[in-house]
Amino acid sequence: MSKSNSDSQMPTKFVVGFNTWLKRLFLGILTVFLALHLMVLALLMIWKTQPINHSMFMILHRISTSNDVKQTWINDDQISINVKRAVIASEDANFANHQGFDIQGIENAIKTNQKAGKISAGGSTISQQLAKNLFLFPQRSYIRKGEEALITLMIEQLWTKERILTAYLNVVEFGNGIYGIEEATQHYFNKPAKRLTKREAASLVAMLPNPKFYQKNRKNQRLNNKTKIILRRMGGADLPD
C-alpha cells in the first residue's frame, strides 16, 4: 500500500473511532439515566405506603452542617385539616384538580423569569416541590426542572393526592434542620400537628419557601402579611378526596 493511500485512510479510521466512542458515551449516559430513574421508581413504590424519613434535602443538610435533622413522620389523620387547607391555599390552589402541573402558574413563572433575566420563579405545584425535596438539589436550572417534571409525573401516577399532600407536609423544611409539620409544630408551638389552629397553621405555611430566614424573624411584617392572606384563602381551599 502506498503512503498516499495510507494517509487517505487515516481520516476514515478517525471518524469510525470517534463515532464508536460517541455511541459508547451515549449508551453509558443512557444506562446511568435509566438506573437512576429505576431507583426513583423503586423508592416511590416503597414510599407509597411506608413512612419517608430521608430526602435529598435532609441528606444535604447533614452533609453541609454535620448536624442531624429533626423529623417525625405522622400519618394523614394526625395532621390538622387547618394546615392542609393552609398549604393548598398558599402553595397550590389547584392541587386537587391538576395532574401535577399548574399551566397558569408555569406561564406566570416564565414571564417573571424573562423580566428578571434569570430563573427567579418556578411556578411549582406541591407535587413538583415534593419531587424536588425527595430527589433533587435546590439549585435552579432548566435541567433540574426537567428532572423535576419527570419525577412529578411518576409521583402523580403512583400516589394518590392524599398521599402526596401527606408526604409533602412530612418532608418540607420549616427551619434549620426542622423537617415536617410535626417537628415544626412541636418546635414553634409545643403541641402536636393535629392540634394546630387556623392561625398557627397559616403562620407556619407562610414561612415557605424561606423558612430559615423566618425562623430568625418570626415577627417580620412580610410574614405577618402573608399569614393574613393565607387565612383569608383557607376557606376556599379544595382538599383532595
Fold blueprint:
Elements (H helix, E strand, L loop, with lengths): L2 H45 L8 H10 L4 E2 L9 H11 L11 H14 L9 H10 L6 H17 L2 H11 L1 E3 L2 E2 L1 H9 L8 H8 L5 H6 L4 H14 L7
Parallel strand pairs: 1-3
Antiparallel strand pairs: 2-3
Labels describing this entry:
241 residues, mainly alpha, three-stranded mixed beta sheet, cell inner membrane, PBP_transglycosylase, 3 strands, single chain, 2 domains, 64% helix, Pep_trsgly, cell shape
Describe this structure as you would to a colleague.
Keywords: Cell inner membrane, Cell membrane, Cell shape, Cell wall biogenesis/degradation, Glycosyltransferase, Membrane, Peptidoglycan synthesis, Transferase, Transmembrane, Transmembrane helix. It comes from Moraxella macacae 0408225. The protein has 241 residues and is mostly helical. The chain is built from eleven helices and three strands, in the order H-H-E-H-H-H-H-H-E-E-H-H-H-H. It folds into two domains: 20-49; 72-234, Biosynthetic peptidoglycan transglycosylase-like (Penicillin binding protein transpeptidase fold), CATH 1.10.3810.10. Strands 1-3-2 form a three-stranded mixed beta sheet.
